[in-house]
């Protein structure tokens, strides 16, 4: 049996042991070596050829960001999963790692020395498996094998048809959902939106508590439009992008305020895209535009159905640009997606829908 070869990088010997034990407990993966900092890690790459790398961000001598940049120069095809503590620096460094090509990230549950890191074992091994598919360049083949040919034909026909479609509804709000690969996709979309957009934008990115604030700040610093981490009770105003905080569902209230809650996770996640889409459809009805971007699972599919049932416009990301074609695929297979576009065209279509709907 071929095993996924993993290189573990962490400045803590205890953490290296704990992470390695979690990985080695799986039949389909093994840790081939470990490294104590960025320099050690890059040196190890001269001898070892991993399929996946787990990378701590806060390390002496050479931190994770610097190591990742060096890795990108020489070994760009090796996917990296960043492991970060929820410290004052961790989330910001993690966002920078994602911007520099990291495949995904995982939060350490309780600081730099996480004695309870076993809580994240399931997520870690799942992300390693997905990353290994990317490394083998066979993710596309696997995705094709799970999609019926007739569905691919329908999607191609849909894309041809929608390029000449006219937006005839007045768009009053935009809702966007994303998961794995979402930070990079959302960065491309949000930073392309104009300062004066005339509608509010609500975003759910599957991300743990402690990281969404850094994510919102990074988007805000690089976007014409204002971006904030949402707070419960916030009055909804135009020309603002509201990012759902990690650990809380974000819903749009009929009082036109943000409502956060700690209701049980949906599809194993909180915040959930479905919670946002369904609540927004009840407030904005046919004047809502929804977008489902890259991600694993099917969160957002039920919400897409609700948006369409209310008369709204529904978009999803094309398989060709998704890191993981899970959420967009699930949404598309409901038969309620109006338009499908690659990520580099999503912002343009959102802007077009909002502008044309107001003429």
Automatic annotation (TrEMBL):
Residue list for modification 4-aspartylphosphate: 56
A Gene Ontology term for the protein's cellular component: cytoplasm
Domain Response regulatory: 5-123
Location (main, coarse): cytoplasm
Catalytic activity entry: L-glutaminyl-[protein] + H2O = L-glutamyl-[protein] + NH4(+); [protein]-L-glutamate 5-O-methyl ester + H2O = L-glutamyl-[protein] + methanol + H(+)
GO molecular function: phosphorelay response regulator activity; protein-glutamate methylesterase activity; protein-glutamine glutaminase activity
KW Nucleotidyltransferase (keyword) present: no
Known EC number: 3.1.1.61, 3.5.1.44
Cited CDD domains: CheB_Rec, REC_CheB-like
Annotated active site: 179, 206, 299
InterPro entries: CheB-like, CheB_C, CheY-like_superfamily, Sig_transdc_resp-reg_Me-estase, Sig_transdc_resp-reg_receiver
Subcellular location as annotated: Cytoplasm
Keywords: Chemotaxis, Cytoplasm, Hydrolase, Phosphoprotein
Limits of the CheB-type methylesterase domain: 174-357
Biological role stated in the UniProt entry: Involved in chemotaxis. Part of a chemotaxis signal transduction system that modulates chemotaxis in response to various stimuli. Catalyzes the demethylation of specific methylglutamate residues introduced into the chemoreceptors (methyl-accepting chemotaxis proteins or MCP) by CheR. Also mediates the irreversible deamidation of specific glutamine residues to glutamic acid.
Family: Belongs to the CheB family.
Domain notes: Contains a C-terminal catalytic domain, and an N-terminal region which modulates catalytic activity.
HAMAP family listed in its UniProt record: CheB_chemtxs
Protein name per the record: Protein-glutamate methylesterase/protein-glutamine glutaminase
Gene that encodes it: cheB
